[in-house]
Amino acid sequence: MKVLVTERIAEEGIEILKNEGIEVDEKIGLSHEEICNIIGEYDALIVRSATKVNEKMIECGKNLKVIARAGVGIDNVDVESATKHGIIVVNAPDGNIMAAAELTIGLIFSIFRYIPQAYMSCKQGDFRRNKFKGVELYEKTAGIIGFGKIGALVAERLKACGMRVIAYDPYVSEEKFKKYGVEKVDFDTLLKESDLITIHTPKTKETYNLISEKEFKKMKKGVRIVNCARGGVINENDLYNAIKEGIVAAAALDVLEKEPNFELEKQDYYNPLLELDNVVITPHLGASTQEAQVNVAVSVAKEVAAVLKGGIAKNAVNLPAFEKERLEEIMPYLELAEAMGKIFIQAERTFANKIEIIYSGQIDEKTTTWLTRALLKGYLEFSVQDTVNYVNSQLLAKEQGIEVIESKKEESGKFKNMITARFTTSEKVLELSGTVYNNEGRIIDFFGYKVDFKPEKYMLLIQNIDKPGMIGKIGTIVGEYGINIATMQVSRNKKGEKAVMVCEVDGALPDEAVEKLKSTDGILRVTMAKL
């Protein structure tokens, strides 16, 4: 067994592979073409962020069984192509969570006590301490947006400082909040009551510009803000204005929407926030600790060794290694199950404390195991900060306090096979059902309405009053924004009551269009879903 390592990783990871009897070739700095010329000799490839593992490289890797990214993101790996070739892709999602949490705490102290500014003043020979009158954390209120693993670590440390800690995360169970002694609040309450706001949420369509002018106007005067999560969650122009207006006393950012090149000593980079003395900016240091670099190297080395030894990778981001023929057979079911999870969470945006998955027909037990994981993956991808994959989705669901029930029955009505997902929230029970025919997944029951549509990349989900003219109104508004409706499914249970529309559209509707639809007479709910 041979592993090719194309970028530097900690020696501890290399040693793990060698101790498992695996031959390791470290060839740093190879061009894309050079890697393609030799990758056919190797069973595994380990990269960081510089190596672009595209379809051509994957096709050249005739013997590849696993591709490992020594880090959190996988933007530089063509996961879809790897999956088609039966290659497992792994990463190290937990390697830097402590580093990110500790950096957050460091930045919090920095902006409460003006530590960086005082340091620079002293360096310049100015020791006047009266310029740096700080604020104590003790008995202040900290608001955490995103209560995943990093958010929980930050909460523990802030509570140790004597802070009242509140958090907003609609997708986390009450049990987790109680476990950490953190108050669960709605978004507006967090904005209004917090002396400190720290962000620990991924950047998604839902969280992009999560904090902008409207949100700043709801905050306490003198609030301090920290973002070590993702650039773009805070609108930086609106943050600048909020600081100038005196709403925000200080801010610390480890991430920016548009980031500079972190390898150059000097460059032409401008961000108006750099002009403000009460803003601390660091160059995306969240994972930059010796321990985090060792952690990710050790993590991926163990994953690679496990796969090459015939085991299961805990941090696989794609499908398990089925035989090619088997993969082609079950792929439509896996895509359907994952889409069902994504549709529910985007349509409802609420925590499900119980998810029941009922399989009908001839689906075998090995397949249902992975279908359940796929459905949970789809649900959790939009509701937790943690990296979710097919292997860890069940464990993450358990950590969130979700009861998962799986059952099987032989009868499936007029369909060969059927998947039904029953989601129980604190207020209601909702069901989605789907099947596969002509080798593509179809949703056949949408929250109690009979439909027949293929889950697509962009879908407009609408609930409306069943009355004449609704289709025309929706089509007109969507058309005003230059978006074409490819297909439309309309269903009602009783004339004149509620109906649903599922529209496949050629692109995502802007928020302005969604709001216009919501305000249209007769429309009850609108969701712009993206799969």
Any overview of this molecule?
With 531 residues, the chain is of the alpha/beta class. The chain has 3 domains: 2-93 and 291-309, Rossmann fold (3-Layer(aba) Sandwich); 96-281, NAD(P)-binding Rossmann-like Domain (Rossmann fold, 3-Layer(aba) Sandwich); 326-530, 2-Layer Sandwich (60s Ribosomal Protein L30, Chain: A). Helices cover 34% and strands 24% of the residues. It has helices spanning 11-19, 32-38, 55-60, 79-84, 97-113, 115-123, 149-160, 174-180, 187-193, 213-216, 236-244, 290-308, 324-348, 365-381, 393-399, 470-480, 511-518; strands at 2-5, 23-26, 44-47, 66-69, 88-90, 141-145, 164-168, 183-184, 196-199, 223-227, 248-253, 279-281, 354-361, 403-409, 417-424, 429-437, 440-446, 449-453, 458-465, 485-492, 498-505, 523-530. Helix 13 (324-348) packs parallel to helix 14 (365-381) and helix 14 (365-381) packs across helix 15 (393-399). The longest helix is centred in the middle third of the chain and has 25 residues, at 324-348.
Briefly summarize what is shown:
This protein is α/β, with parallel strands linked by helices and 531 residues long.
What's the total helix number?
17
Structural class: alpha/beta
Radius of gyration: 25 Å
* Count of all domains: 3
Which geometry do the CA atoms define? globular
Largest sheet: 7 strands, parallel
**Can you tell me the CATH architecture of the largest domain?**
2-Layer Sandwich
Distance between the termini: 37 Å
Secondary-structure blueprint:
Elements: E1 2-5, H1 11-19, E2 23-26, H2 32-38, E3 44-47, H3 55-60, E4 66-69, H4 79-84, E5 88-90, H5 97-113, H6 115-123, E6 141-145, H7 149-160, E7 164-168, H8 174-180, E8 183-184, H9 187-193, E9 196-199, H10 213-216, E10 223-227, H11 236-244, E11 248-253, E12 279-281, H12 290-308, H13 324-348, E13 354-361, H14 365-381, H15 393-399, E14 403-409, E15 417-424, E16 429-437, E17 440-446, E18 449-453, E19 458-465, H16 470-480, E20 485-492, E21 498-505, H17 511-518, E22 523-530
Parallel strand pairs: 1-2, 1-3, 3-4, 4-5, 6-7, 6-9, 7-8, 9-10, 10-11, 11-12, 13-14
Antiparallel strand pairs: 13-15, 15-16, 16-17, 17-18, 19-21, 19-22, 20-21
